[in-house]
């Protein structure tokens, strides 16, 4: 019976170690993304005529 308790404790310990490793590893990968710290405008916004037309203010409608 003692070995079952030891196995349960080790299983729980390895579960916490695995969970911590996954969370820290995922956060490390996500935080290393170069676009996360890039302040420049996206190239499709800078070069796209559709995005430029959508960003331009529209003139007021003519009076009726």
UniProtKB/TrEMBL annotation:
It is found in: Postsynaptic cell membrane. Keywords: Cell membrane, Disulfide bond, Glycoprotein, Ion channel, Ion transport, Ligand-gated ion channel, Membrane, Postsynaptic cell membrane, Receptor, Signal, Synapse, Transmembrane, Transmembrane helix, Transport. Residues 1-29 form the Neurotransmitter-gated ion-channel transmembrane domain. The chain crosses the membrane at residues 13-31. The keyword Signal applies. Belongs to the ligand-gated ion channel (TC 1.A.9) family. Acetylcholine receptor (TC 1.A.9.1) subfamily. This is Acetylcholine receptor subunit alpha-like. It comes from Papilio xuthus.
């Amino acid at each position: 019976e003692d070995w079952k308790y030891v196995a349960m404790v080790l299983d729980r310990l390895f579960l916490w170690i695995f969970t911590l490793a996954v969370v820290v590893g995922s956060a490390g990968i996500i935080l290393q993304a170069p676009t996360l710290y890039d302040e420049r405008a996206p190239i499709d916004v800078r070069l796209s005529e559709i995005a430029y037309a959508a960003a331009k203010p529209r003139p007021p409608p003519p009076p009726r």
